[in-house]
Amino acid sequence: MDGEEDTSNPMMEANGTGGVDEAPLSSTSTRKNRPIISGEPLDIEAYAGLYTGRTKIKRLIFIASRCDNPAMQLEALRMAYDEIKKGENTQLYREVVQKIEGRLGPNYEMDAAWCSTIERKDEQRKEKLESELNAYRTNLIKESIRMGYNDFGDFYYAHGALGDAFKSYIRTRDYCTTSKHIIQMCLNAILVSIEMVQFSNVTSYVSRAELTPEALDPPTVAKLCCASGLAHLEAKKYKLAARKFLEVGPELGNSYSEVIAPQDVATYGGLCALASFDRTELKNKVIDNINFRDFLELVPEVRELINDFYSSHYASCLEYLGNLKPNLMLDIHLYNHVETLYDQIRNKALIQYTLPFVSVDMRMMADAFKTSVSGLEKELEALITDNQIQARIDSHNKILYARHADQRNATFQRVLQTGNEFDQDVRAMLLRANLLKRDCNLKASRKV
């Protein structure tokens, strides 16, 4: 930077881009729960305790498939095995036993007797559901038919037949008699669609549920916001995803643990907001958002990195992101977006750093971002080429010069253009007036 600029952040603050004068999120408030998603190795038991149902099992299996630590893999598979045996999904049970490969001892080997017992009971249960549903259809009792299809949907969902479960839940639509029935149908369809990774269906049924506002209580609204946020995240619409997660109210609690945990709302919403929001939005919609602040208290690292980014403490912010990355790569919804989000956040930090200055010493900037000068130069070149930074690089002296427009010349050019346009308009009006005066206007010929 210029000679009188010895530090980065104070200058940025003096130019109106700093944030230390604003009250950041409290870092000293009492933590109600031990942080699960942090820079420390993932606590699998605590993490799994945030979820219930199929998502708990799926997340454990996902961790086992993505983790490089053999001990962590086996711990995740052990917990998945124990959870599956509480249910009725024999197919998923066989898959997990195959992944364990006998590494957990005789207690975690194939239990053929359990599978046979479960499958026999399942056949009996299915026959009973079919006979009951046929009786309801014969008697044309709409409420009983609706409940019968719901029971079938629950049955198929418990056994991992997600396509059949989705069809059964959707069939209840023709037998819904109240708004609450429609909301239940939509929530069931959303749940199965998330499991099947069919987020177009999620968006569709969220919209349908929102058409019946009289039946939406605060917890249901929070669930719909979470589902919509996941759909936008999957579509890589990070700004829309951030807005939806930021709308989630405290009424959510642990009521949607079969899909998402409050810690996920903070993590997904915080990272998407950092990657897509401008400085004003970050302050108004994230830092000053009282409801979202409660979610951020569950994940202190995300809270702190947001504060650091807003306060222009980029090295600290990027350090938090680096520490969180291994655990975020084990998240079943986020892993595919981590690299993109991180790149966007880093690019925003680089742009925001350079914005207030006429010239920047790249050696000082590299030190602020904990990177090499050559690496920083390549990053800046990419941003300049992409027209995200208006500047030029002095590679010899390692200085970045802002390319500010010549305001005086631009003003003259605008004045000349306005004068030319006015001259053309006047000439056109005079020509038209003379033509009208001499009755030279063209008239449409009549057809004979």
Termini separation comes to 81 Å
Give the SSE order as H and E letters: HHHHHHHHHHHHHHHHHHEHHEEH
Mean pLDDT: 84
Number of DSSP-assigned strands:
3
Helix content: 55-70%
Written description of the protein model:
This protein is mainly alpha-helical and 448 residues long. It has helices at residues 9-14, 44-48, 53-66, 70-84, 90-100, 112-139, 142-158, 162-171, 179-195, 199-210, 218-234, 238-246, 262-276, 279-287, 290-296, 300-310, 314-328, 338-354, 362-368, 373-385, 407-437, and strands at residues 359-361, 391-394, 399-402. Strands 1-3-2 form a 3-stranded antiparallel β-sheet. Strand 2 and strand 3 form a beta hairpin. Helix 16 runs antiparallel to helix 17 (314-328). The termini are far apart. Residues 1-34 have low confidence and may be disordered.
Short summary of the structure?
By secondary structure, this protein is an all-alpha fold.
Features:
single chain, 448 residues, mainly alpha, three-stranded antiparallel β-sheet, disordered N terminus
Write the layout of secondary structure elements.
Blueprint: H1 9-14, H2 44-48, H3 53-66, H4 70-84, H5 90-100, H6 112-139, H7 142-158, H8 162-171, H9 179-195, H10 199-210, H11 218-234, H12 238-246, H13 262-276, H14 279-287, H15 290-296, H16 300-310, H17 314-328, H18 338-354, E1 359-361, H19 362-368, H20 373-385, E2 391-394, E3 399-402, H21 407-437
Antiparallel strand pairs: 1-3, 2-3
Helix pairs in contact: 3-4, 4-5, 6-7, 7-8, 8-9, 9-10, 10-11, 11-12, 12-13, 13-16, 13-18, 16-17, 17-18, 19-20
